[in-house]
Amino acid sequence: MKTIGVLTSGGDAPGMNAAIRAVVRTACENGMKVYGINRGYAGLIEEDIRELNIRSVSDIIHRGGTMLYSARCLEFKEEAGMKKAIETCHKFGIEGIVVIGGDGSFRGARDLSLRGVPCIAIPGTIDNDIVSTDYTIGYDTCLNTIMQMVDRVRDTVESHSRCIVVEVMGNRCGDLTLNAGIAVGATAIVIPEISCDIEKHVIERIKRTQKTDKKHFIVMVAEGIGGVEALARKIEQECGVESRAIVLGHVQRGGSPTVKDRVVASQMGYYAVQKLISGESNRVIVLKNDSITDYDIYEALCMKKSVDDQLYKVAHEISI
Ligand code: F6P
């Protein structure tokens, strides 16, 4: 393999730049030409492509976002879009692509692989919602951002003896909410994976802690559940504590990547190129039990995610 492409697709995540850097440098070190494909699959369809060298990826390891920009491309899901993307690969001589993104981006990588363009996928999303891997690039940075933001909110919540209901990103996955919830000492955590009786798990819990003289409360709610404003009003009425709701929003996706995100992204970028060099296709690079390994993308997409019940139990027991 002489020429490869690299793209980032779906929601950006801190650490994507570190992965791009590793892909480009590993490929260059192995005598390959590398094209950076801008705006994910959209750039592949529209030939928004530039050649990268080892210096093109200098000074990006510490930056959030993605130097290749990102997009969610509907056109690529159509046969015509896929055809154009493959034509671009032929035109530029691209013989393999490293795709950095979430599950949706993996489906695109699988479809390209099936049509003769070998792809290797790297899990990059703050959500940690990719079943095949224990870890997705961006997750640790995002968790730390949420913790820092909620710690700040805690200062004012405590000063005013209020309750704050915080909506956390994560799409349909509660990993960010559960782990950040434990880290900020939330009184209640509501995630999609575990059915929650609001009356019992939130209202009664707050009332119980009020009896022990607790005066301020943090309730963490996953975006897959939503309704933070209504929940704040309910808490105010039923528990008699002034309440506010906040949606942390896209601040959670930004910022300089943590050590963990930079290191895992660098490893995954390196291994993705090694897979292409050894002639493999349709693989996803994953972190399993602290080791980097890989799976067939189709198999990976069929895996079922389970929530960490034990961790939820710990959160529940100690949030009093
Ligand atoms: O995939 C990351 C994520 O931030 C999710 O947590 C969230 O549901 C979604 O992307 C938001 O997407 P957008 O930036 O397109 O609004």
Give your account of this protein's structure.
The protein is α/β, with parallel strands linked by helices and about 325 residues long. The protein folds into 2 domains: about 180 residues, Rossmann fold (3-Layer(aba) Sandwich); about 110 residues, Phosphofructokinase domain (Rossmann fold, 3-Layer(aba) Sandwich). It has 11 helices and 11 strands. It has a 7-stranded mixed sheet, sandwiched between helices. A 4-stranded parallel sheet has the order 7-8-6-9, with helices on both faces. Helix 1 packs parallel to helix 9, helix 5 packs across helix 6 and helix 7 crosses helix 8. The longest helix has 21 residues. The mean pLDDT is about 95. Bound molecules: 6-O-phosphono-beta-D-fructofuranose.
Number of helices: 11
SSE topology string = EHEHEHEHEHEHEHEHEHEEHH
Helix and strand composition category: alpha/beta
Low-pLDDT windows of residues: none
